[in-house]
């Protein structure tokens, strides 16, 4: 378990029976540590928490080593205790440890709740700062540990060029290229595309190998754009 997690969360946490426990001992062996920012008074939180608890229990049953630490935004201790009582198996930052909660919110730039941040249990590094949606779409944990795809994985293996032919993505990404996000319905996109075509043509003339990779065009629209992959 990364010492960084103890430094981040403090020496002590609360277990699900509200007893103080050693952070290092409780998180030892955890592959994933989730920091759950939530509050009893928040309706979206009250809706998401049972789903998160169910997913967590599924992971426990499947022997997937994950721990979740509740970072409360409750307005009083009674609300905190009542709400934490609904989170069977979770750990929590102790009530009153405001400096730790403030540091967590600042470190992960939490702007709203509920919010779930996933950390690597070995390094303490955050790898998914918006995991609420991932778990909401995957309650059975089939995509555990919900690591976002790399840039290369997100691009995929193939593109379609301006003639409608499939090309190997590596032949494009091995040279300077740009991603252009647009749609046929956008009124301003024509000027933008003409500008990108000029850039691409100029790059080819100067053997720069520039490609503009579009996302969101219809097949018919793409066929008109020979400068694009």
Give an overview in words:
The protein is α/β, with parallel strands linked by helices and 229 residues long. It has ten helices and eleven strands. The protein has a five-stranded mixed β-sheet with strand order 5-4-3-6-7, sandwiched between helices. A two-stranded antiparallel sheet has the order 1-2. It has a two-stranded antiparallel sheet with strand order 8-9. It is elongated, with a radius of gyration of 24 Å. The two termini are 45 Å apart. Mean pLDDT is 83; it is low at 215-227.
Quick tags:
Glutaredoxin; 229 residues; 38% helix; disordered C terminus; 11 strands; 2 domains; two-stranded antiparallel ribbon; five-stranded mixed sheet; alpha/beta
Annotation field: number of helices: 10
Measured distance between first and last alpha carbons: 45 Å
Please give the largest β-sheet: 5 strands, mixed
Whole-angstrom Rg: 24 Å
Under the CATH scheme, the architecture of the largest domain is: 3-Layer(aba) Sandwich
Q: Identify the CATH class of the largest domain.
A: Alpha Beta
Low-confidence stretches: 215-227
Strand adjacency order, main sheet: 5-4-3-6-7
Strand content: 15-25%
CATH topology description of the largest domain:
Glutaredoxin
What count of structural domains? 2
On the 0 to 100 scale, the average pLDDT is 83
Structural class: alpha/beta
Assembly state here?
single chain
Tell me briefly what this model is.
With 229 residues, the protein is of the alpha/beta class. The chain contains 10 helices and 11 strands. It has 2 domains: 135 residues, Glutaredoxin (3-Layer(aba) Sandwich), CATH 3.40.30.10; 73 residues, no CATH class.
């Amino acid at each position: 378990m990364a010492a960084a997690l103890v430094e981040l969360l403090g020496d002590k946490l609360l277990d699900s029976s509200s007893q103080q426990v050693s952070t290092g001992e409780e998180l030892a062996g955890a592959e994933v540590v989730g920091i759950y920012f939530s509050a009893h008074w928040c309706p979206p939180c009250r809706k998401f928490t049972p789903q998160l608890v169910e997913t967590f229990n599924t992971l426990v049953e499947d022997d997937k080593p994950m721990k979740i630490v509740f970072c409360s935004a409750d307005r009083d201790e009674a609300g905190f205790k009542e709400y934490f009582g609904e989170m069977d198996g979770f750990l929590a930052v102790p009530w009153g440890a405001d400096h730790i909660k403030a540091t967590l919110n600042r470190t992960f730039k939490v702007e709203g709740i509920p919010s779930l941040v996933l950390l690597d249990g070995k390094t303490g590094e955050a790898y998914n700062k918006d995991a609420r949606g991932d778990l909401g779409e995957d309650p059975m944990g089939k995509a555990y540990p919900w690591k976002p795809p790399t840039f290369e994985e997100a691009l995929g293996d193939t593109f379609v060029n301006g003639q409608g032919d499939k090309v190997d993505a590596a032949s494009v990404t091995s040279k300077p290229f740009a991603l252009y996000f647009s749609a046929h319905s956008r009124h301003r996109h024509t000027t933008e595309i003409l500008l990108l075509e000029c850039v691409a043509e100029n790059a080819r003339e100067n053997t720069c190998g520039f490609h503009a990779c579009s996302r969101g065009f219809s097949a018919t629209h793409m066929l008109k754009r020979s400068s694009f992959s």
